[in-house]
Specification:
This protein is mainly alpha-helical and about 140 residues long. The protein is built from seven helices and two strands. Helices cover about 65% and strands about 5% of the residues. Strand 1 and strand 2 form a beta hairpin.
Length: about 140
């Protein structure tokens, strides 16, 4: 996979994405943005997780991407995208993997597991709250 080609597909991947694909792409961003460092407390875990969520919300706001609030995050769509399945289409799958795939190679499996757990929290929160262009959250406000 030529990572540079797929990273240049950003606008197409987001513009044409359905809700499941947007959530998959958001997970890929979260996996890339979130720290894989070990935490010693739940407080540290949530600080790192919320920092990543803030970066995601800024990314989406800058590109005018909204995500409607969902009843739940459907985990199988994440697995589908990561394994090039049938729900997440190829452009979104390959763009998403170009965003986060390098982490799987360069990080230890323990670090990737920590990143995965934090990214899951980010995506579950984004799915539950949605993303609008008028965000007003205690840890993130659009100026």
């Amino acid at each position: 996979m030529n990572k540079n080609i797929w990273q240049n597909m950003e606008s197409t991947a987001w513009r044409d994405a359905n809700i499941y694909e947007k959530l998959f792409l958001t997970f890929c961003l979260a996996f890339d943005f979130v720290s894989g460092e070990m935490t010693n407390s739940e407080h540290e875990f949530w600080n790192l997780t919320l920092d990543a969520e803030k970066k995601i919300r800024e990314f989406l706001f800058e590109r005018e991407i909204t995500i409607p609030q969902q009843e739940e995050f459907i985990f199988t769509t994440l697995a589908d995208g990561l394994s090039k399945g049938r729900v997440i289409r190829p452009v979104q799958t390959n763009y998403g993997i170009a965003l986060c795939g390098e982490n799987f190679v360069k990080n230890s499996s323990e670090e990737n597991e920590r990143k995965f757990q934090k990214a899951l929290q980010v995506i579950e929160r984004i799915a539950a709250m949605g993303v609008t262009n008028t965000e007003e959250l205690p840890y993130y406000k659009i100026n």
